[in-house]
Design goal:
126 residues, alpha/beta, 2 helices
Length: 126
């Protein structure tokens, strides 16, 4: 029998509290500070669970350069009728647009970077 496990995405950055606050506000979640001083978690309804870890030598990923590209990114699903408001909210919280040219149509997807430089996509469900 397999031991029960839970997966968790961990984002590295220089200032974990600031990045955790960004994602908590964006995702309607809460920030939880644990016993380990360099890791902060973001937890919310609908399965939201991220960890933000301090990396003292952090360098943000680049996009779209292939030599040190995005490595991984978050895909945040938003109802089609709410995506424009979600975009305004993300930018208002400090997200920077990277590529929003796929706006509209059946596969609306908008790429941003968070305040620490990690790419994420606001997208409508398939």
């Amino acid at each position: 029998m397999a031991v029960p496990k839970t997966g968790l995405v961990v984002l590295d950055c220089a200032e974990p509290q600031e990045l955790a606050d960004f994602y908590a506000a964006l995702l309607g979640a809460e920030v939880r500070v644990g016993h380990e001083p360099d890791i902060v978690e973001v937890v919310g309804a609908a399965g939201v669970h991220l960890a933000i870890r301090r990396d003292h030598g952090y360098a943000p990923p680049s996009w779209p350069r292939p030599d040190d590209s995005q490595q991984a990114h978050l895909r945040i699903l938003v109802a089609r009728e709410d995506i424009d408001e979600a975009e305004r909210e993300a930018v208002g919280l400090g997200a920077r647009p990277l590529d929003t040219k796929n706006n509209g149509g059946l596969r609306d997807a908008r790429l941003y970077s968070d305040p620490a430089g990690h790419p994420f996509t606001l997208a409508t469900p398939a």
